[in-house]
Amino acid sequence: MSSSNAVKESAKKLVNLLEKYPKDRIPHLVSFKDIQIARFGRVAGLPNVDHEGNSIKQKKPSIDEIKSIINRTSGPLGLNKEMLTKIQNKIIDEKFTEESINEQFRALSCIMNNKFRNYYDVGDKLYKPAGNPHYYQRLIDAVDGKKKENLLTAMRTVLFGK
Amino acid sequence: MSINRFASGRFPVLLRKAPFYYSRAYLHETGVFKQNKETAEDSPEVLAKSSHLNSKPLDLSNKAPIKTAQNKIPLAHSKYESSKYELPKWKEALGELVIRAFRLDMDRVRAGPVAGSYYYKICKEQGLQYEDEPLSETAKYFYEDLKLPRTFSQWFQITILHEWMLFVRMRAMPFKYGRNYQQKLVDRTFSDIELRLFEEMKVNSGRIADQYLKDFNTQLRGAIFAYDEGFATDDSTLATAVWRNLFGGRKNIDMLHLESVVRYIHSQLYVLSRLSDREFATGKFKFVPPGVKVEKLTPKQEEELKSKAVSKYEALDKDPKTLPSERSRLSYTN
């Protein structure tokens, strides 16, 4: 009994860490954060609800959202409806030990602390590449919605590539 | 069709001293990496193996294994790409003459054989597998340690992850050259995939093959965008991008596997960032195997490497005997 309590405690810690995980900047079909919180929340015995108290199950992408995502590609390879529902409905039966959950916790915190980004620092040579110094800045600005491309800058990109 | 375009397809053999047969990458030569597996106690592969979770990914029963080894598309499509091919001396001399007479920009011409042939080859090899053949060392990391499904589209995901790492480096080259290198790499990827779909996957309808190609194109754009976003922001975003693309959004992901891939990516980018434009553009790079730990260079080692490269290329540029096809205007000091 004590060992299962320990697993629960570790899972709770992991869920707390996952709560701090940054949100996706643009919505995707699946969200890493939500799926993992649901996964480990189950292990921790937490109720499967989001911060507003709604059940997570209702937060599944709506049919319209799925359609819009599928329609972005002309031939959705391996993304047919049957497969999607198959994946969605499958609840995976996993067996966790305290050790394995603590490992997950350690790995996730390494990722969130940018351990390897800082260790293998590539410097401005790659972050501000000589051939296209504002490439990443423009990308992030566009994603964050800070700076919209106007027709002029868009045409410049199309004509000159940067 | 510009003459450069013509030349890049036609004269790759002229460069045979430059891009093709580097069995070891430049940094490997310095002994900075511990090549010996026993001594490498710490590497992306070891990290992935150390997990106690033993997660079993969903069995989406592999309906399209790649098993037609007799129809295999070789890594080199044309005889000119083969390592055994020797260009007749007169053709070689004629080629050098043409380069000198028309003052061809060799840095542009080289994009074909280096990015389109050599760099595509090393990207393709990483995840290449056939059902009836044993896995290579790197493929073992992806399919056994990370438990990825052995399918064609998975191979594509592994390939574009590696191509993206090269793209990151290519952006740091002078714009017109880097752009050209990227273009050549992508062109070659899709022409190769088309061939593989027909020959190996036995798709015998052009329309269906086109559909697949369009879908792969969408995947490529999505993945490059997601990885770029992750590279420019933080590791959490990068890990999410890896999870969505490489792991196909697997629910029961093992965080150690994610960490291992993130580490793998950063270590490759680190090696890429230490190479000068000249070295990278002449194909002196290969991916560090996942079972090898990339040690960080001390400032002294870095200095040593730089001076070695500078003296090498200074001598090459000064030497009047250097062939026109071996010349380059790209920087070797950055």
If you had to describe this structure to a student in words, what would you say it looks like?
Chain B: It comes from Saccharomyces mikatae IFO 1815. Chain B: This is Ubiquinol-cytochrome c chaperone domain-containing protein. The complex is a heterodimer of chains A (162) and B (334). In chain A, helix 1 runs antiparallel to helix 2 (32-44) and helix 1 packs parallel to helix 5. Chain A has two domains: 2-117, no CATH class; 124-160, no CATH class. Helices cover 57% and strands 0% of the residues of chain A. With 162 residues, chain A is mainly α. Chain A is flat and about 65 Å long. Chain A is built from nine helices and no strands. Chain B is mainly alpha-helical and 334 residues long. Chain B has one domain (3-326). Chain B is 57% helix and 0% strand. Chain B has helices at 3-10, 26-29, 44-49, 89-102, 106-109, 111-126, 137-145, 152-171, 175-199, 206-232, 235-245, 255-274, 277-281, 299-318. The longest helix of chain B is centred in the middle third of the chain and has 27 residues, at 206-232. Chain B is globular and about 60 Å long. Chain B starts with a helix and ends in a 16-residue tail after the last helix. At the A-B interface, helix 2, helix 5, helix 6, helix 7 and helix 8 of A face helix 8, helix 9, helix 10, helix 11 and helix 12 of B.
